[in-house]
Amino acid sequence: MAGLAGNAFKRMCLEAGLNKEAQDQDQYMILFKNDYTPAADDILADYTEATFSGYAQASITGASWSVTTAEPAVASYAEQEFISDDDQTPETIYGYAIFLAMDDTFVGAERFSSPQVIQNDLDQIAVTPRIRLYQKV
């Protein structure tokens, strides 16, 4: 299942495609631990970021996305791993969200099909970020 794309990001895609404004910025990905269902108008404050020992945001390089042109168009990125570095209180992770590094614009998010728990040293969550865009007519 591919993640939901945010409305602000859809607008940016159209503007960039029409050469209205050059877009060349990187993103970051977080894991979120609040039981939240992503929506197209989300902002960073809608997500409670993971805090387990060893966690760090993943840096995403804009130029490294792979994009398919079939409907729906899908952008995918290399798998990102988040690894615990200690035994700790269990932390439930519900999904991931991606934001633009320059201004925290919501790019997209995805809930996992089932929550994942981090508790022990070397527990890990591997995520292959995906964003899909549909054309409605």
- Helix and strand succession? EHEEEEEEEEE
**Adjacency order of strands in the biggest sheet:** 1-8-7-2-3
Average pLDDT confidence is 86
Tell me the distance between the termini.
22 Å
Helix % is under 10%
Q: Give the helix tally.
A: 1
Features of this protein?
single chain, mainly beta, five-stranded antiparallel sheet, three-stranded antiparallel sheet
Topology record:
Elements: E1 4-5, H1 7-17, E2 27-32, E3 58-60, E4 66-68, E5 73-76, E6 80-83, E7 91-100, E8 106-118, E9 124-127, E10 130-133
Antiparallel strand pairs: 1-8, 2-3, 2-7, 4-5, 5-10, 6-9, 7-8
Question: How would you describe this structure to a colleague?
Answer:
There is one protein chain. By secondary structure, the chain is mainly β. It has one domain (4-133). Helices cover 8% and strands 39% of the residues. It has one helix and ten strands; from the N terminus they run βαβββββββββ. It has one helix spanning 7-17; strands spanning 4-5, 27-32, 58-60, 66-68, 73-76, 80-83, 91-100, 106-118, 124-127, 130-133. The strands form three sheets. It has a five-stranded antiparallel beta sheet. A three-stranded antiparallel beta sheet has the order 4-5-10, with no helix packed on it. Strands 6-9 form a two-stranded antiparallel ribbon. β4 and β5 form a beta hairpin.
Write a concise synopsis of the structure shown:
By secondary structure, this protein is mainly β. The protein has one helix at residues 7-17; strands at residues 4-5, 27-32, 58-60, 66-68, 73-76, 80-83, 91-100, 106-118, 124-127, 130-133. It is built from 1 helix and 10 strands; from the N terminus they run βαβββββββββ.
